[in-house]
Request: fold
Amino acid sequence: MDILAELNPAQREAVEAINGPVLILAGPGSGKTRVIAHRVAYLVKVCDVSPRRIMAVTFTNKAAREMEERLHRLVSGSVRDLTLGTFHAICARILRREGKAIGIDPKFVIYDEEDQISLLKRSIQGVGLDPKQYAPRAIASAITAAKSRMLAPQDYLERSHSYFEEVVGRVYERYQQLLTDSSALDFDDLLMKVVQLFRNCPEILSRYQTRYLHLLVDEFQDTNLVQYELIKQLGGRYRNICVVGDPDQSIYSWRFADLRNILSFEKDYPEAKLVLLEQNYRSTKRILETASCVISANQQRKPKELWTNNELGELTTVVETYTEQEEAQFVVHEVECLTAQGETKLGDCAVMYRTNAQSRALEEAFVRYGIPYKLVAGTRFYERREVKDIIAYLRLTQNPYDSISLLRIINVPQRGIGQRSLSELSSWAKSKGVPEYRALQLIIEQKGNEPLFSSRITKVLAGFLSLTEEFIARSWELNLVELLDLVIERTSYKEYILGQPDGEERWENILELRTVAQQYRDLKPREGLAAFLEGVTLVSDVDGLDESVDAVTLITLHQAKGLEFPIVFIVGMEEGVLPHFKSFDDPEQMEEERRLCYVGITRAKQRVYLIRAFRRSLMGSSTASCPSRFLSDIPPRLISGAGLWQGEGNQIARAIYSWNKASAPSVTTPELKVGDHVHHPQFGNGVVVSCQPVTDDKEVVVAFSGLGVKKLLLSFARLEKVE
DNA sequence: CGAAAGGCTCTTTTT
DNA sequence: GAGCCTTTCG
Reply:
């Protein structure tokens, strides 16, 4: 097969430019993944480069997996030796091998965000402050920022200019110490420590530089400074660095991704070849134009000329509903209509939203109307309590100094060790300068002077310790599944969880985890354990998305990056949701919100629906909202909607969703006045408190007995007058 | 010690 | 509306 044959001239240029640095700026749907895959294939098949001398970095594991499949088809031969994965996964692998050189225990565990927050709480307390006064999340973000700039605690403290920064610096210092004590790394450490390793150990760097003749980085617009530095180090010898990105799709600045990396690249590699991919193969002309209208309003951007040979396509449908429930109903209804004609499958449809919380109303509607859907993440599987408990046992087996895991499960299932005994244990460990696990050993060996705990507690602790020791001992001979079963059996975890609320469901989750573990059962005992723990920590939510299942996809706009669907619904097109209210006072963040909207629209191949709800419950209470400013950037000629609504000079299409009315028992809305008694199918009986005309309708306030006062829109509410 | 209940805050997006 | 923390009681 000719690798270049299926490429357009620009793509071909990007593939063939194998000597020296290349910067590919690629619009949505311009085939950048394809270019990366073909470039690797070209290197291997045409240029005879050994796959083990190529590193390709993707944004998610899913993208890596797809790349691998693609390559399999292109290069049929072995691409096993290729280094392919996310920055985090690749760095974890490097540190596992080489970390010793900078004092990293090869058995290190990786702390996810939840672990990080609880360790931070301990750190804040550790420096004598109150975690309630200094939000751990805010400090976490500051520390991530510091690590993204490769600042060690001391560097950070030297540069601190405010009281808050000083606090962060001190907490950071303590936090880092606790991580080291636990033989643990957080996500940011994975990257930062590798850069550090390469800086401190030139001979190791040189080995890696020599190995990697070619580097490829996808989604370059969402890399941060550490990642940039890492690539710079690795590519230092051959400078064959190929980066692909699109500034208009940069949506991770809150994770300290830095668009300036693109500028730095041009500066650090002045000889870099620039390739623009501007032909879109994904979307219709109208979708592309709609997206361009939205993104063009950004000030901080270079204009781009995207074009497509695809057909003109449909207008974008803009719809307004009354509540988020009706918004969800509209989506369900529309999906039903589309799929009823047979041309569209459920799997062709995706519903995208700004915040995870928005998925609930959607899910409820999909469940109620019996439409299959796949929710990307939800309450993320690996963050569930029961799953994390079991993982904590396994982590402790790999690395007993992991104090976060130890403290998590020392009393789960309950063993009668309370908060008091725990803090006693922790402070004793601290006074001896040893990790909790070592402290346990010392206490049991009675090497502490006088007994610290009552004989009952000492006995329980001894039991826990020998349990852990048993797991550790057996972990050298059992495969992962056997080890997991042993943990469940010896802790009586099944009995414990079945006795909890939602026990059945939680037990199912454990079985699901066991299924994941099966994939590692053939590895050598300890290797399987390490690989599994790394895998479950570094998964991203989209990784679990299964294209072969025919169901509607429910997904955040962030997760949707890199994906495509024939039909795209974007819900919550409201001021405060998209754009999110947190971005109101910062123009740069506002531009990112716009890019997020752009990413959403450009996922679509055939049709786009932009939907907003007039009222939405946010943080418990229901609030009214204005249409998203992004809607007014789309000219009316690109929009369709049943019934146009003229407002404030903008033409916003407004489709009054008639389904409810059609299926309501009373087709005609009753004439109501204050004091009338009414019946609502859901809320029961009530009395009209007020009745005010709004556009095309009436807003009725009804006091329902037992439920309180509700605001309803007359045409939707299915109210019946009771005489 | 632990279960249950009440009260508080805060919510964006994620490797 | 949820999750976390504290309080209270057995």
User: Anything to note?
Assistant: Chain A is about 45% helix and 15% strand.
